[in-house]
Amino acid sequence: MLKVVRSSSLDLTQIVEDSLNSLDNSFSMFNSEAKRQKYYDEKWEIVEPEEYVLGVRLDVLRDRTTGVYREVPITDKYMYVPIMSSLKGAVCRNQLHLTVRF
After folding, report:
1. Cα separation of 22 and 44, whole Å?
2. Is position 43 within any domain?
3. 8 A C-beta contact, residue 72 and residue 61
4. Within 10 A of 90 (CB to CB), how many other CB atoms are there?
5. Does 77 map to a domain?
6. Model confidence pLDDT, tens digit, residues 72-82
């Protein structure tokens, strides 16, 4: 009786392993950054952030190797995601239902 149970459990184990090995990885289409970006571009209209340079300022930083303080130019930037483009994309995909009342 023990030999039968062991034999059938090994067969069952093999069947389960074969079944699991035959399954595809459902995330294989997202295994690289390029594939994810391609999927997002096809599925949704991606609104990229815009960057604006506000100006350049001088800041005093300490050099780690020499220990001397020196002035270095620092570029100040401002980034934002355009809200109108984001809303247009949402409305075009019917994800956002707007009701206008007067």
Report:
1. 32
2. no
3. yes
4. 16
5. yes
6. 999 999 999 99
